[in-house]
Amino acid sequence: DPFPLAHDDTEYYLLSKEHVSVAEFDGQPVLKVEPQALTLLAQQAFHDAAFMLRVSHQQQVASILLDPEASENDKYVALQFLRNSEIAAKGILPTCQDTGTAIIMGKKGQRVWTGGGDEAALTQGVYNTYTEDNLRYSQNAPLDMYKEVNTGTNLPAQIDLYSVDGEEYKFLCMAKGGGSANKTYLYQETKALITPAKLKNYLVEKMRTLGTAACPPYHIAFVIGGTSAEATLTTVK
């Protein structure tokens, strides 16, 4: 299973019972998923990502208001975060103006039948969200080596689908902001660097180059090693 996730305590909700059914093939249960289900899923996922934050996250922010060690400035900022979330939850103004690149990672069980065209159906969902909601278009398409133009739909989306065992179709949907993408670096060094003292100094040196171009607070991921450069960067994402 590529990129297994840790324990998932997310509270999910049912979008619809339509467009999904169970059949049987060769004595085994088969999950049949129509393209409309994938479109609906992607559309709602990116809508929620733009306008909603999880309850667990909001509780962490709210706890700052009751923290005796929090300064008045800390409490002011936390309160503004909560007020911003209240406004965004109405579905008109998104939580952040950078509504991101739509990235979808799917793990499709071997007993899941869709009839093909999964990427097209998911892409339609992304298109619907970004063109129907009040979200920014961030994707540019090259006209040639030196010129580009905004696609006006926030497409293309990045869609990576993997084959796994079972009869489930699981998705991880992310609206990845441009600041984090612009601060992604690949360094190809030698094994001589892999000692506790050298590695610590090296990482601190590289972190100092990040500056303040992305939106704080930062979440920084380090990946060391890998079968190839692209595998390392995929693991970072």
Q: What Rg is obtained from the alpha carbons, in whole angstroms? A: 21 Å
Report the portion of residues in β strands. 15-25%
Distance between the termini: 16 Å
**Major sheet:** 3 strands, mixed
- Strand arrangement within the widest β-sheet reads 1-2-4
Would you list the SSEs in sequence order as H and E? EEHHHEEHEEEEHHH
Q: Average pLDDT, to the nearest integer?
A: 93
Choose one word for the global shape: globular
Low-confidence stretches: none
Number of strands: 8
Protein structure class? alpha/beta
Number of helices: 7
Task: Please give the domain count.
Answer: 2
Helix content: 25-40%
Characterise this structure.
It contains 7 helices and 8 strands, in the order ββαααββαββββααα. With 237 residues, the chain is of the alpha/beta class. The protein has 2 domains: 1-52 and 89-176, no CATH class; 178-237, no CATH class. The strands form 3 sheets. Strands 1-2-4 form a 3-stranded mixed beta sheet. Strands 7-3-8 form a 3-stranded mixed beta sheet. Helix 1 (35-51) runs parallel beside helix 4 (118-132). The longest helix has 17 residues, at 35-51. The chain is globular.
Task: Considering the chains and any ligands shown, give keywords for the structure.
Fe-S_hydro-lyase_TtdA-typ_cat, 35% helix, single chain, metal ion binding, Class-I_Fumarase/Tartrate_DH, three-stranded mixed β-sheet, 237 residues
